[in-house]
């Protein structure tokens, strides 16, 4: 999923009026602003060749593109670049008078709708948003997924089905499976999320009789069978600290990680990151594991781990080899702010400790 980051917004100015608007926006956001050589001023970057060529480059490197110019021109320029609404950057268009800010592409997952509202607020402009859920003042499943940093199986189809239900006045339940998390203070702060249009469900054993479907926010691998369609939205909350011998095989690592996740009944989609000590940053199996699971590989120095190693059993062999008595437990401790889950797996020279991040 593509989520707009303020430091990754490219703005394209085609006229002097566009430059003036961009200067106003730069007072509020860290923007990369492009313009032609003829309009070039301090703080702006010249187009790399043509406007279209520069847009094509930015399309691959920025999470959001803002064009201060005509909608039609923008559509023609970006049309050959479009790939997938789950990965394309947000595209927003602003007229050079600053009267309208238009969410053109990737409104939900890409964050264009949210960016449009923000930019319109800065300029005192009219935000133009046409996605059906927003027009009807409803939440959307893909927006909720972004807010939760969550994923789900068959995400694209689920979003299509659920959002269509919402705009068709069907009743879609929303259940927060707090019990799937190990500790009470790990629970989701539900008031932080946009749930307009969803029907709050407090218990799976007592569902409203008129629901057409149910969204279940859970990190649990399996849910009970219910009589209505259930879409499980899985927040990425689980982290794994991993220690291993040099040249450990990828097949062993992924097998043991899956084993540890299954032991505590976590859905594999709940994995947010793996981590290890700095001496393992180039370990092929760990890098492959990170790529395969599509999660970051976080690295910690020996000094960082030493600050917490007294909390855990130590190995003289590990200390002599690495410089600290344990790896997986202090790594998981740091990744989760001390919210560890269960026991550490120790098999065939591999240690894995799970935690819950916030």
TrEMBL record:
Gene Ontology BP annotations: cobalamin biosynthetic process
The CobE/GbiG C-terminal domain, residue ranges: 238-354
Gene3D superfamilies: 3.40.50.11220, CobE/GbiG C-terminal domain (3.30.420.180)
GO molecular function per UniProt: cobalt-precorrin-5A acetaldehyde-lyase activity
E.C. designation(s): 3.7.1.12
Domain Cobalamin biosynthesis central region, first and last residues per copy: 140-224
NCBIfam families found in the cross-reference section: PRK05788.1-1
Protein name: Cobalt-precorrin 5A hydrolase
Organism this protein belongs to: Tolumonas osonensis
